[in-house]
Specification:
The chain has 405 residues and is mainly β. It has helices at residues 6-25, 98-112, 118-128, 160-170, and strands at residues 30-32, 46-56, 79-91, 115-116, 151-156, 177-188, 213-219, 227-228, 232-238, 244-249, 252-254, 258-259, 263-267, 275-287, 292-298, 302-307, 310-315, 319-322, 325-334, 344-349, 356-361, 373-378, 381-389, 392-393, 401-404. The chain folds into three domains: 6-188, no CATH class; 213-307, Coagulation Factor XIII, Chain A, domain 1 (Distorted Sandwich), CATH 2.70.50.70; 310-404, Immunoglobulin-like (Sandwich). 14% of the residues lie in helices and 39% in strands. The strands form five sheets. The chain has a six-stranded mixed beta sheet. Strands 8, 10, 11, 14, 15 and 16 form a six-stranded mixed beta sheet that branches.
């Protein structure tokens, strides 16, 4: 999943991918993302790309349902998949074929590089985070790179009538254009092509390998045990040991501790965030002489819930609030980080019965944190503390209690 900046990040990534080939085809050209509307639009020499439609992706529509339990509480963070439609228009001197050269560079580049890769997204975010002269600084908090699905680009064939209707909306004279679809973008909340080396010898090897299938993900400590940071998990399914399996997580690919056809075990690193986490199994094949790794079949995408653990709990001095209440700040230390857009709750329970006495929402965060602080108003007393991140409840070795007075 990715936040609301994902759509803008895809546009900025397309600018980054297309700038070099368009400038090579038309010296001095630039890639812009203005709206081609009326006389106020003054196109620069080169290419203008404009996202003119955002539509639901049919394959992902309703894929996360249900998101709530029967009592209305949140079961998982809702997500939606959308496809983005781009109009790419060439501008310049028609006599020297500058628009046609720009469009030719676009078609050739996007045919060769038909996906927006994670390194490209990382470059966009790095440029947005520069202290001096940032590019698209508004995108510095984008997390599109954490999305498991790659954003793929596909050309769209548009008839003359469809193009005419589209340009009539812009109230602008028509210029040579092509349309592309980019998807899927999951919302929560070029350089020169290196030629292939010459073929020195030919060796054909045939392997029978079906795509792995994941049924569920559980804790190795017990099927009913929660999954926490650093714990070992079991990926259960079929065809999981084909080739050399890798477990693909939001933080990157992990090497399993062991693998059979029905089960893959892997120890989670400590760089995952709390809450729902995507997971896939990739069958890596070693082919050639000498054998080199090649990507094979990829399993279906599943999710598991990573529960945070409270490692320390403290509070500051209290002040009277009237009505038998006090104002106090409770400081919580977790073993995993909580993202900026994630829901974070502090629950204070009655130690004897476990009944929730107070519930507090965390204030807005500007960066991921492992040490959230809650400024609350409560009755003095002793409570068992718990936090919930996107509905994932915290775990602890011994019940953590805090006495507020």
């Amino acid at each position: 999943m990715s936040n609301y900046l994902a759509i803008g990040t895809v546009t900025a990534a397309l600018e980054l991918i297309l700038q070099a080939p368009v400038a090579a085809a038309v010296p001095g050209a630039h890639v812009t993302n203005d709206r081609p509307a009326g006389g106020a639009f003054k196109p620069k020499l080169g290419l203008n790309l404009y996202c003119y439609a955002v539509v639901p992706n049919p394959a992902w529509r309703g894929s996360d349902l249900p998101t709530r339990r029967s009592d209305g509480s949140l079961e998982q963070v809702p997500q939606t998949g959308v496809d983005l439609f781009y109009l790419m228009t060439g501008y310049g001197d028609d006599v020297t074929l500058e628009p046609q050269r720009a469009i030719g560079a676009v078609v050739a580049t996007l045919h060769t590089q038909a996906t927006i890769t994670k390194p490209v997204i990382d470059t966009v975010i790095a440029q947005a985070s520069l202290n001096n002269n940032p590019i698209h600084a508004e995108l510095k908090n984008s997390d599109l790179g954490a999305q498991v699905e790659l954003v793929r680009l596909c050309p769209i064939e548009m008839s003359t009538e469809e193009l005419s209707k589209l340009w009539s909306v812009f109230e602008s004279p028509y210029s040579l254009s092509v349309a592309y679809r980019a998807g899927v973008v999951l919302l929560n909340a070029p350089g020169a092509v290196t030629p292939a080396p010459p073929v020195l010898s030919r060796d054909i090897e045939t392997l029978a390998s079906a795509a792995p299938q994941i049924d569920r993900v559980v804790s190795a400590a017990g099927f009913s045990n929660p999954i926490t940071s650093g714990s070992k998990i079991l990926v259960l399914g079929s065809g999981l040991a084909a080739g050399t399996p890798l477990v693909r997580l939001a933080s990157g690919d992990a090497t399993p501790d062991g693998a059979t056809d029905r089960q893959v075990s892997v120890t989670l690193a400590g760089n995952l965030s709390a809450g729902p986490q995507p997971l896939q199994v990739v069958s890596q094949l070693y082919l050639g002489d000498p054998p080199l790794p090649h990507p094979g079949a990829v399993s279906n995408l599943v999710q598991f819930v990573l529960h945070p653990t409270i490692t320390a709990l403290g509070h500051g001095n209290s002040t009277p609030a009237g009505g038998g209440l006090i104002n106090i700040t409770v400081n919580v230390t977790l073993d995993v980080s909580v993202g900026v857009a994630q829901s974070l709750l502090l629950l204070l329970r009655q130690p004897a019965t476990g009944r929730v006495q107070f519930m507090f929402q965390s204030p807005t965060r500007n960066a991921p944190t492992t040490t959230p602080a809650f400024s609350i108003q409560v009755r003095p007393g002793t409570y068992s503390a718990e936090v919930q991140v996107d509905g994932a409840a915290s775990q602890f070795v011994n019940p953590l209690q805090v006495t507020l007075a």
